UniProtKB/TrEMBL annotation:
Organism expressing this protein natively: Cucumis melo
Phylogenetic placement of the source organism: Eukaryota, Viridiplantae, Streptophyta, Embryophyta, Tracheophyta
Family: Belongs to the cytochrome P450 family.
Pfam families: p450
Protein name, UniProt field: Cytochrome P450 86B1-like
Record's keyword annotation contains Oxidoreductase: yes
Length: 541
């Protein structure tokens, strides 16, 4: 034992042999500890890196695969997922920190996706993790509901969306939005030689006005000539971004941040106030109209006429959730899809030429009525839009490469085995990586990274694909309810633009995806518009 007396003697140099003993007693344990620590560190590092070969990513003690995820988040998360899936033959198990709820299985295998979305649909609801994560934004709306609440919303919406009245509303609203708003704004931009225009912003305005018109019977007028500031739109983007961050943050962290009103949770709270206010105004306006006996037949009015399981009319909170979900469904999906489409078209002028040629060939058939050669007056008919099959192929190809919903989520409620042999314990979260699917040679062949509308055509006719290989619209009982409308809308808007303008992405404009629920371009899409020369069109007549 060392007493304080010994220590004094050693430090004063009186007992050299004892000095050696003391040195050993004091420093050797430290050195041994250091050696042991280094040995453990090397062992863990080697073990973690070895697991990389087996599991796709190194698994570190305590934090699991989190360090790799952070690297992915810093660059392009979707590319990062693609890379890992590619090396793991389409499925990998992500191990989050032991104290978190980030563990999940990620897959891009079409067999697994069919199993989850269709064959074993009832075993794979959205689940409690998803519901809790997005509940502040989406409440009990259709995107976030399971079971009876989902089923009732789906049935009501499906009946409404398949009605003749709805179809008429979609056709009429698009005529107005494109010809009285979009094209005049483009013309003004062209005539006045303004700075490049943000096409993504314009398209978001258009689809927002459009979904409000068809779903709630209101026209917010976001796509007006002066392009007014839209507090709702900013708030909606902040809200979806902050919500998506929750998916990659350990639950107890974001919940603590929410409780103390900190960081992104604070922004989310502010943003939700704005978003909810907008939806509540729409509902209140509709209630006032009802009092004044103004009859409406849009989706919101249909829901307002229904009763809940207690026989009571739906609460304002639930109607608000329905509105917010439809805004997300209708605004953010087709607009971002079209933005990626125009970006791809700019890099592939031969595709643009073929689209233009197809539009002109269809217009030529107008015969005597032929306003065909004067692009300025052309308003497409429903049948003409249907005939644009090459355009449909090009839009599908853009959606394949840049799906508006790049990843989606399910939770298994009973132990299960996926068709590729992956074992799932009850409660496991399953992510299906739609963006990554487009980049799998096993699904789309060696040219999977190329933008090739031709892959959708057989003998010049558009061929649909299985929803489990081409999953941007989901599949099975939860297939997107707006798919037909979205195609009509995207074809109508893009054909109307391409017939009149060449859309060129502004020089040096950086195009990268943003981390949000839908795949926005992070810096928008700055473009210059060039009005087509009459000769460019006449050569096809
Ligand atoms: C390019 C355009 C679109 C794409 C890529 C798209 C994609 C999707 C996807 C991936 C889902 C499944 C979401 C999930 O369950 O997590 C979905 C569902 C849905 N979509 Fe779309 N969508 C588009 C346009 C629209 C439009 C314009 C509307 C309506 C105006 C719409 C209405 C819906 C509805 C109501 C659902 C919920 C279906 C359900 O859960 O039963 N979508 N869509």
């Amino acid at each position: 034992m060392l007493s304080s007396g010994n220590l004094t003697a050693i430090s004063s140099g009186e007992f050299p042999s004892q000095r050696l003993v003391a040195w050993k007693l004091f420093f050797l344990p430290d050195i041994q500890m250091l050696e042991i620590f280094i040995a453990i560190f090397i062992f863990t590092a080697i073990r973690s890196l070895r697991q990389r070969r087996k599991q796709g990513l190194p698994v570190w003690p305590v934090v699991g695969m989190l360090p790799s995820l952070v690297t992915g988040l810093r660059s392009n998360l979707y590319e990062w997922i693609t890379e890992v899936l590619y090396h793991q033959n389409g499925t990998f198990r992500f191990k989050g920190p032991w104290f978190s709820s980030l563990h999940c299985v990620v897959t891009s295998d079409p067999r697994n996706i069919e199993h989850i979305l269709k064959t074993e649909f009832l075993k794979y609801p959205k689940g409690s993790f998803f519901r809790e994560t997005v509940h502040d934004l989406l409440g009990d709306g259709i995107f976030n509901a399971d079971g009876e609440i989902w089923h009732k919303q789906r049935k009501t919406t499906s009946i409404e969306f398949h009605s003749a009245k709805f179809r008429q509303l979609t056709v009429e609203s698009l005529h107005v939005l494109v010809h009285s708003r979009l094209l005049p704004i483009f013309d003004r931009h062209f005539v006045e030689h303004l700075v490049p225009i943000d096409l993504q912003d314009i398209l978001l305005r258009l689809t927002f006005d459009n979904v409000c018109m068809i779903a709630f019977g209101v026209d917010p007028g976001c796509l007006s000539p002066n392009l007014p500031a839209i507090p709702f739109a900013n708030a909606f983007e902040v809200a979806t971004e902050a919500t998506v961050l929750r998916f990659v943050t350990p639950q107890f962290i974001w919940k603590t941040m929410r409780y103390f009103n900190l960081g992104t949770e604070k922004s989310l709270k502010f943003a939700l106030k704005e978003v909810n206010e907008f939806a509540m105004n729409v509902i209140e306006k509709r209630r006032r109209e009802k009092v004044n006996e103004i009859e409406r037949s849009d989706l919101l009015s249909v829901f307002m006429g229904l009763k809940d399981e207690n026989g009571e009319p739906y609460s304002d909170k639930f109607l608000k959730d329905i509105c917010v979900n439809f805004i997300l469904a209708g605004r953010d999906t087709s607009s971002v899809a079209l933005s990626w489409f125009f970006w791809l078209i700019d890099g592939n002028p031969e595709v643009e030429e073929r689209i233009l040629e197809e539009i002109c060939r269809i217009l030529k058939k107008r015969g005597e009525a032929g306003e065909g050669s004067s692009a300025g007056n052309v308003r497409f008919e429903v049948e003409e839009i249907k005939k644009m099959e090459y355009l449909e192929a090009a839009i599908s190809e853009a959606l394949r490469l840049f799906p508006s919903v790049p990843v989606d989520h399910k939770e298994v409620i009973k132990d299960d085995v996926l068709p590729d042999g992956t074992q799932l314990k009850k409660g496991t979260k399953v992510i299906y990586a739609i963006y990554a699917m487009a980049r799998m040679e096993a699904i789309w062949g060696k040219d999977c990274y190329e933008f090739k509308p031709e892959r959708w055509l057989k003998d010049g006719r558009f061929m649909t694909e299985s929803a489990y290989r081409f999953t941007p619209f989901n599949g099975g009982p939860r297939l997107c309810l707006g798919k037909d409308f979205a195609y009509y809308q995207m074809k109508y808007i893009s054909a109307s633009i391409i017939l009149r303008y060449r859309v060129k992405v502004a020089e040096k404009h950086l195009v990268v995806p943003k981390l949000a629920l839908t795949m926005y371009m992070k810096y928008g899409l700055k473009v210059n518009l060039f009005k087509r020369d009459k000769k460019e069109i006449e050569k096809y007549f």
